[in-house]
Amino acid sequence: MAQQLWAGVDAGKSDHHCVVIDTDGQRLVSQQVANDEAALVDLIEGVATLADGGEVTWAIDLNAGGAGLLITLLIAADQRLLYIPGRTVYHASGGYRGDGKTDAKDAAVIADQARMRRDLQPLRPGDDIAVELRILTGRRTDLVADRTRAINRLRAQLLEYFPALERAFDYSKSRAALMLLTGYQTPDGLRRIGHARLETWLRKRKAYNASAVAAAAIEAANAQHTTVPGQQVAAAMVARLAKEVMILDTEIGDTETMIEDRFRRHRHAEIILSMPGFGVTLGAEFLAATGGDMSAFASADRLAGVAGLAPVPRDSGRISGNLKRPRRYDRRLLRACYLAAHIAIRTDPTSRRYYDRKRAEGKRHTQAVLALARRRLNVLWAMLRDHRVYQPIAPNAAAA
């Protein structure tokens, strides 16, 4: 006999736990399944057999990572799949009996939430390019974070024994300064080589502005004649960190080249780039976060909700009109929209006028940028829906 079922999956690295419930919330299945194709196919077929022709709704707490194979198999089998963020599962668990936490309980909570809630986002596969962009933009984010940490460690180590050289350059922007540190890191070493030979050494390595870099380094060396204990080991660490940052710079550049190549091949690339504030990097972030398919969002309001740009009420008693950012939203998508709006304020007169109007209404800078990002998201969603590039609004038309 056909019956409607809900299957909740608590995803893991090597194993998943699946709980299947019926319309009354009764558990019909509770089992651990290996994260292996054959085992997952058996699970999907077994749940379909149990439903006996009825509808099965699957729900999962991961939308990538270790759940990637299961998601692909479910979509290939034309199964309805919902995504429930782990944070939502965590808060919902407090409303169920028992204080303990197990994979079986989490899977049961996921299944029951899928049965009761109507606000969960269906999980759809992004197109191939969008999936590749998600992987590449994620890798770029990790590399940039690694680079920031390496530079911070480098500066802290350099500050410990040679503060004059630490403050002589902005190592996050000067490749020539990093190149300098791969060869010379101590006051006495810099004084021995001198300005002329140091400049020649930098020029051979194609350092930009070699003369100015050499002069600043020698000036720093002449400002310190004291040898701090541990200088030699610290200098060796600085040289290693400088090389690490340069390697990361190369890898970031290679990754950005791959991002641009794939982004420009996407069918929405021209439309997104026509929107002021969006370049290749932010456009790629937008496609990665949305999957490249606007049909997954029934309206611009739904897209704004996922991006965290649609405020939700936090009213209680006599307090009303109190709007807050939703707790569940895609932070990468919000970041891309916010930064694009921030750039557009400087480059697009229409965006600037809207921002100035919001500021005149008493909104803080961040609030005004978020309001602009929300308005621009409406426009971008319509552009992608209609396959039309951005058309600037003439100042006279805007005033009218």
Keywords, separated by commas or semicolons:
17 helices; two-stranded antiparallel sheet; six-stranded mixed sheet; 60% helix; 400 residues; alpha/beta
Mean pLDDT: 90
* Rg estimate, integer Å: 28 Å
Largest sheet: 6 strands, mixed
Distance between the termini: 64 Å
The strand order across the widest sheet is: 3-2-1-4-5-6
Quaternary organisation: single chain
Q: Helical amount among residues, as a percent range?
A: 55-70%
Q: Which word captures the global form?
A: globular
> How many distinct helices?
17
Uncertain ranges: none
- What class would the helix/strand composition place it in? alpha/beta
Q: What is the strand content?
A: 5-15%
Description:
With 400 residues, the chain is an alpha/beta fold. The chain is 60% helix and 9% strand. The strands form 2 sheets. Strands 3-2-1-4-5-6 form a 6-stranded mixed β-sheet. β1 (5-10) and β2 (15-21) form a beta hairpin. The longest helix has 34 residues, at 128-161. The radius of gyration is 28 Å and the shape is globular. The model has no long low-confidence stretch (mean pLDDT 90).
